[in-house]
Amino acid sequence: MPTAIAVTGPDLVLPSPDRHTPSAAVLQSAVRSSRAYSLDQSITEMDTLIEHHGYVVVLCPASAPPAVVHRLHAVRAVLESDRVAILRSDLPPLGIAVLALQLRQLSICDFSPGVLASAARLLSHYIYAGALLGSVAKLDRVPVTLQSHAKSWVPGTQFAVLATPRPELVKVSGDGEARLQGPGFGTKLLYAPGRISPDWVTTTLAPAWHAQGVEEARLPAESARWWATGKLVEFAAAIPDISVLYQLVSSVRRDDCHWCGLELIGDRCAFCAAPLPPPAERPAQQTRALTPPGARLRPAGSGPGRGPTALPRGAT
């Protein structure tokens, strides 16, 4: 069985794009209150996932209530298991759902659990997540100027906001014009409408970003709180092709965690949180990159299947 990808809410589970991609496990310990779902039940739930899958990668929003985070760490501590990785993510809710889908796609490949879990940080740099907002008066996730705050009180004003990978906020003009710096590689755009029309996202943003496809998704319950308004359309553009995702992850140098022994990419183990030693103290090791048949990463600008050609600064 592939490594289990778990999430803290049912609305973070996007439909599988094919019959091979497994679904995500929704942790009831995060969905229900502690009164409705006891610690013993939470432990049994996680132990069952470990028993069936060997390893569990839990995606937990950085905005999740403290009680949810404390329960996850309590379960891991009681089980005394090094087979559970708890990954906190600053992505907006729809962006986390997209990241979970990408990890689900990669879970059926030949990546070890340590590489799969640490790939979440890398893949997050390639997810362009934002929203069209009817107000930024209470928004604190992205820097908002005093002028934008003032404009936010004008009826009918809308703002296009990018949260990741680079915060950006622009006012949507009367003719719908607004320039958000988009990805330089092929993506699929998902959007989840709230209480305003998604027309700007589908007819202006998608063509400007050269989206290979546009698909509507369900708005996560957390979105209104994350964006501080219910008048929104959340969107996320990400690489949809599993072969491109595979090569992106497999092209990064792998190391062994000096504490738990699992493979990792980047500078910290996702399971035990041990940092990678400084370069001078690491053993000589070559990148162990495997490429599945037909999985060739195309350079940016080479057409519909184009993919990223370089890792962004700080991605690993």
Question: How is the main sheet built?
Answer: 6 strands, mixed
Strand percentage, roughly? 15-25%
What's the rounded overall pLDDT mean? 86
Structural class: alpha/beta
Distance between the termini: 27 Å
Tell me the total number of β-strands: 12
Order of helices and strands: EEHHEHEHHEHEEEHEHEHEE
Backbone shape: globular
Helical residues, percent:
25-40%
Give the number of helices: 9
Order of strands across the widest beta sheet?
A: 7-6-5-10-8-9
Detail the topology: elements first, then pairings.
Blueprint: E1 4-7, E2 25-26, H1 28-31, H2 39-53, E3 56-61, H3 66-79, E4 84-89, H4 93-106, H5 113-124, E5 128-133, H6 146-151, E6 158-164, E7 168-172, E8 188-193, H7 199-208, E9 213-216, H8 223-227, E10 232-238, H9 242-250, E11 255-256, E12 263-264
Parallel strand pairs: 1-2, 1-3, 3-4, 8-9
Antiparallel strand pairs: 5-6, 5-10, 6-7, 8-10, 11-12
Helix pairs in contact: 2-3, 4-5
